[in-house]
Amino acid sequence: MKLILSSSNLMHGGRQSVIRQPLTQKSNVELINSLRSNFLAWQQIESANTNGNGHSNGSRPPASSWTHQGEDALYIPAIDFSQPGLAEERDQYDITVKLFYLPGIPASRRCAHTREAIDLVLKELHVKSIDLLIVSFPGILFDADDDSEEEDNEASNGEPDDFDSTVQTWRVLESLHEQGMIAQLGVAEFGSERLARFLPHTKVKPSVDQINLKDCCVVPKSLILYAKQEQIQLLTHNDCNDILPVGTTRELLGPSEKGAGILASSPDADDGIKGDVEPQWVVKYTAVVKDRGVVENKGYFASADVGTCVKDRS
Amino acid sequence: MGLLALGTALEWPEAKKKADQVRQWGIEQLLANWRRAKGKERDALLWGDEVEYLVVALDDAAKKSRLSLAQAEILKSLARDEALWKSGTSKGNENGEHDGEEPPHFHPEFGRFMLEATPGQPWGIGFKDLLKVESNMKWRREVASAHMAPNEVPITLTTFPRLGTKDDYIQPYYPPSGPALRSQFVPDEIANPHIRFPTLAANIRSRRGRKVELNVPVFHDINTPRPFKDPTVDYDLHNWPEDDDVRNGAAKEDHVYMDAMAFGMGSCCLQITFQAKNMTEGRRLYDQLSPLGPILLALTAATPIYKGFLVDTDVRWNQIGNAVDDRTREELGEAPLKNDRWRIPKSRYASNSTYISQDPRLRKEYFDPDLVVDEDIKKRLMDGGMDDLLATHFAHLFIRDPLVIFSEDLEELDLNKGDHFENLQSTNWQHMRFKPPPPDKDDIGWRVEFRSMEIQITDFENAAFSIFIVLITRAILSFDLNFYIPIQRTTENMETAHARNAIHDRKFWFRKDPFSRRIPRSAQQSTNGSTFSSTTSSAVNTPPPSPPLGPVDSEFDLMTISDIVNGCADGTFPGLIPLVESYLNSVNVDVETRCFLASYLDLIRKRADGTLWTGARWIREFVAKHPSYKQDSVVSEEITYDLVKAVEEMTIKEGKHGSVGWELLRGKKTK
Asked: Could you give the subunit structure recorded for this chain (chain A) (predicted)?
């Protein structure tokens, strides 16, 4: 069974994205908190409606009351795509989407995953295209302190993304670009060597390389120079690499107090949907009013497979 | 500073007779303009900073520093250059660093020893623009400097430490006690000679019925006399009737006494003006920035010396308030109300007193129940179609009299102009100002001015604070933040900010939870019955929170500046810096810009947590460590000279590598 998790617009009531922590710490706290608080908000509304007194009586409403079983997936919570997306006309916005391909998921699924993720964002925002799509490949870690590039670090973080599949994935993105669905493409965490190896294989060059802002004042000179030469903008982010691990997903959706009460506490338990859970991808979207710098809409979608039908990874 | 039209300025007895006419015409102009501009939409974020300088002349041989009264000559010379730049015959800068930037603008200020400089064109939110702010400020300083005598420098101290002392602290020298100011400490020549300024000063004094009165508590050092009686006060002057003021007890014991507008309006500030996308957003920013005024005042504290003495306060604000306080004894509550219309609790220069946003989160408990309002004016505005909140705001500003009236302007009411409206608006110096679009310029929108910050010694700091405020406005709009507290608490905070070392020793009222309650969209639809629009600015579309609100008093608490800026350890208030950083994490920022912004945010974070000193602290320590300081609170000519030299060096070296000022800029000697 496929699950589609969504945060809805986390800017309003944005507590979950404001984290008091050292600037240098990368994190998936925003993703997890925003999903959790969206689930909670929906459950509270549901139980308030049932109790009719505006207050929750403490018991969790049945999952079926606040989620939606679609033809293709279980939507957590139910999404109503008929709601308007953006307040103003499309050309007032810069819409940036970052798609995280997760570790351990076969690259062969990325074509479908990309379409699926982009479609959800387009439907949510009621737009036909996005301005910038940044893709994050699993296992690629950029380390600003280490001018010898990123390759060394990969071994310790699971298997690095193999180069051929990166190039194959890029073909998919290029075709979306050709169709006019995406104006600009970007990558994340690429060092200059990787970029240099990658660029000759592209028809549409990445316009952006997004790097972790751990200490943006010490970006390797080689990367700055190379990016400038290739007209690639270096942008900053503070997302962590493994943004939605399996354990986190089960905790988020499981029966515990902090969970959503959808999944069982373990694959074989009877307290929720049985089976293994496997997060597939995460997408973050941001719509910024261009000449005012106001973030109007920001949110996440995530997809996970659950049950005995979890696809074979080979 | 306001409009500089020329004409015949009325002296107070005449001006007073015309006050009602000016107010009425001002209100008609406001209404006409409001009707024209209320539907203005989709203006971009444009913003500008104003930096004010003291012009100081250095006499290295005699080790003396004096204020230079060369404003007019410097401005004339600057204007010549600006004309050359415009005609294209001269380039603004040789090295091309400022290519594509308009040359800066320079403006006169009240003090004849002051200059104000603004960027040649407003800034946008493009992150590249943010990078230009600091270099543009430095450019302004260079340009200003180039038009001064070789021994003159523009410095950004808030006040000149020895203004009003017995020595020749101005150049050229004029003796004190002129007809306009009637000050026993400063001459009339201290003020800009444009008729507006002496008239303003004279009419404030005249309306008030005596000189303005500034008593600042002295800082008691170990050798400071107790009680301290300001030794510079002359009790035997008989030039003007106002010389009686001191014999009637104007100078308070244990206080430094000052008696003229120049002691306040001669202070330098850092002011930021934002253009909002429409009136609704402007009103929202006005309200949300208001509680931040006192916080930023304490954070930027830089004013520990007056008239040659260390004082026990760290900021300039109340001194300016007192320096332009035109209230009569009746209005002040010192005499029974007979001739005047009401008691007025604050000076024309004070923290703001009401909220104006049509925001469902604005609870009635946040208002001051004793707000003084001209009910006739409010009625006229509401009859003219204006809503209660905004009409109340302007009817509050219009309780004041116009101070400078030119008889030529009273011949005919021109509804296409804003001069009479501006007459009152621009002499209400509250810490926030809500500015309607000028009637004659279609390309300018509704604006909000943030006015409480003290000027900082270096352009690095001035850029940091300017940009911090800009980023806060973006975070407010993006996260739909709610900083509302009862407005009297902001008034209280403003007083609190004055205390010596208030930044660390005092606590300020602040709202605990700035976030609105999160309500899923479809739930909003079902509980509200109306289609939800996700517009970020239109507060009227936000449904009221469903559960009943708690008591207002539980919404806010006393917090330290560090809690407010960096967040509370217990997680209640997230902190302004983390809010700004979350905003930055949601937008695409390039590496270079983020690096710059990080250094600015780092400065503010460390000011707040005490790692870095405020300007006030640094100046105090400089004086205390000076070999000629006698622990008697006296800041001598020699100390002042050395301080000015140190400040001049700091503007260039910025505390790098252990150079002067590292304590307030770097925190480490080695950086």
From this structure: Heterodimer of a catalytic heavy chain and a regulatory light chain.
